[in-house]
Write a structure and sequence with these properties.
Helices cover 32% and strands 27% of the residues. The protein contains 16 helices and 31 strands. A six-stranded mixed beta sheet has the order 27-31-30-29-26-28.
Length: 518
């Protein structure tokens, strides 16, 4: 019996017949290949051939496992290998665990797990160990002893680390960091660049944090979601007619960094006239009112003072698309030396000031210039930045459809949390530690009316968890960690957090689909 515990991307972790997955099967004890082929006692069917693209592959199946024959030769063409895997996922629809024999390279294990392979085998590690090749976290090492046992321990520890990373939503970071296999990097690049749509549908809405250690991070689904929103959908607040472009900071949210605190203090009362926009990699642009959301407040990137050509191209694309839809009457930019290159991407006529953080002169100069403009042209001023922030986060998280439902809502501070009250009842509660809004059970009707973030369940009262067996349907906008509304034929049943991709909710009979919030 497959008991899934967590999903991340195409990967899944859980327990099958006492064996944790993803993991390495022991080719001596777990697999029987004599008069019949079996794994953990489950007998497999005879091989059947299917054609994917121009490649004919062999498939063997048991009740719970699907094996891709000749996987060791198919993976020699990584692009074709991933194409085949994507088609296998469409066929399988989460019903069986996938096993790829004879490609049990430990340095491919994280990315192959990310691609949705639950079982590999340890045959290669036996062969390497017998040849006195020992696995280490720094790579393969030549040893002076038989290394079979040491390699088996390595595989066990690696499997446990990957299983934990799926639960913690950090598997992508691990796959990105392990560069000991060039094929691993190649597979990851093909996945993020050529299968963005498929990968985005199964990638969590948020993770604990983002460690953007390479340019591959520019193509993470959560990064691309934010870039796409800023590029194609975001609309600046109407009253903000003056833009101020500034560099990001290592500390998040930016406003809690030393440099931004000094800037905020210097501008003080003038900030109500400005729309502050932070320039950053890997996100491109972050309007100040969205700085506390995910991923803006949850990423870390190496600070070298140099932008790669890929980062510059990303910033150019995001900025040009943003400025096509968002116009300002006046623009300023306070840029440190390593950000001066971005001046050519900014609005025509922008006033550029160099930010020397070693003294206050540049901040005083900026304040004087903005003050002169405000005095002469008397632009409108925003007095309620909290409301602006909360509404902006709602729009980013749920979409513009939600704004009419909260437009007359009142912002209330309750126990250090801000919430939107509609018709005197709590509707949405801001969770700053997660950078998102939580749906209150009083505010389910708008989601049901618009068929947004809905999980339909059987007619029962939900308690702590909703299991997949109780799910009737789920809307395709749901990603893992999304806020969702539970209903039965349009009757509200509760609210909670998605723990499975929407496809898995509909297909599986076991595992937690939604964690209910009472």
């Amino acid at each position: 019996m497959i008991i899934d515990e967590a999903f991340f991307g195409f990967s899944r972790t859980g327990n099958f017949e006492g064996k944790r997955y993803p993991a390495f099967l022991d080719w001596k004890t777990d697999i029987v290949n004599e008069s019949y082929f079996s794994i953990f006692g489950e007998i497999f069917s005879d091989s059947r051939k299917i054609k994917i693209g121009n490649t004919e592959i062999g498939i063997r199946e048991s009740e719970s496992i699907m094996m891709i024959e000749d996987a060791d030769s198919i993976i020699q063409r990584p692009r074709n290998f991933i194409k085949i895997l994507m088609e296998i996922h469409k066929m399988n629809r989460y019903h069986k665990l996938i096993y790829t024999p004879l490609i049990g390279d430990p340095y491919l294990f994280p990315v192959l797990s990310l691609l949705g392979i639950s079982f590999q085998d340890n045959f290669i590690s036996y062969m390497d160990g017998a040849e006195k090749i020992e696995y280490r976290y720094m790579g393969r090492m030549k040893s002076n002893r038989n290394s079979i046992d040491a390699n088996l321990v390595f595989l066990k520890n690696l499997s446990e680390d990957v299983q934990t990373s799926i639960k913690n939503y950090t598997l992508f970071d691990i796959a990105e960091k392990i560069n000991l296999s060039s094929k691993s990097v190649e597979l990851l690049r093909i996945l993020v660049n050529e299968y963005q749509k498929e990968f985005e549908e199964v990638f969590p809405r948020r993770t604990q944090s983002i460690r953007a250690v390479s340019n591959i991070s520019l193509s993470r689904p959560d990064i691309l979601r934010f870039q796409k929103y800023i590029s194609e959908y975001y609309v600046k607040p109407d009253a903000r007619t003056i833009s101020l472009f500034i560099p990001c900071s290592a500390r998040k949210p930016y406003s809690e960094s030393k440099s931004h605190k000094r800037l905020i203090e210097a501008l003080s009362d003038l900030r109500g006239f400005l729309h502050e926009i932070i320039i950053t990699s890997p996100l491109g642009l972050v309007p100040r009112e969205l700085e506390e959301t995910y991923p803006a407040a949850f990423y870390d990137v190496p600070v070298t003072g140099r932008w790669s050509s890929e980062e510059k191209e990303m910033l150019f694309n995001v900025t040009s698309n943003y400025l096509t839809r968002n116009k300002y009457k006046k623009s300023f930019a306070l840029l440190t030396d390593d950000y001066l290159f971005s001046a050519e991407y900014l609005p025509e006529g922008v006033e550029i000031l160099n930010w020397d953080k070693s003294n206050e002169d540049s901040l005083i100069k900026l304040r004087n210039k903005i003050g002169e403009y405000v005095t002469e042209y008397k632009p409108p001023r925003v007095n309620d930045s909290i409301r602006e922030k909360i509404f902006s986060i709602c729009e980013y998280q749920f979409g513009g459809w939600i704004l009419p439902y909260i437009s007359k809502g009142k912002i209330i501070k309750n126990y250090n949390q801000f919430m939107i009250a509609v018709d005197g009842k709590p509707a949405l509660i801001y969770q700053q530690d997660k950078g998102k809004m939580a749906i209150n059970k009083n505010f389910t009707k708008p989601f049901i009316e618009n068929s947004k973030f809905l999980v339909e369940i059987d007619d029962f009262k939900p308690t702590a968890n909703i299991y997949a067996v109780g799910v009737i349907s789920a809307t395709s906008d749901i990603r893992v960690e999304d806020e969702v509304v539970l209903h039965n034929s349009g009757t509200p049943k509760g609210v909670g957090t998605a723990k499975m991709p929407f496809q898995a909710m509909k297909e599986l009979d076991k595992g937690i689909a939604v964690k209910v919030r009472n």
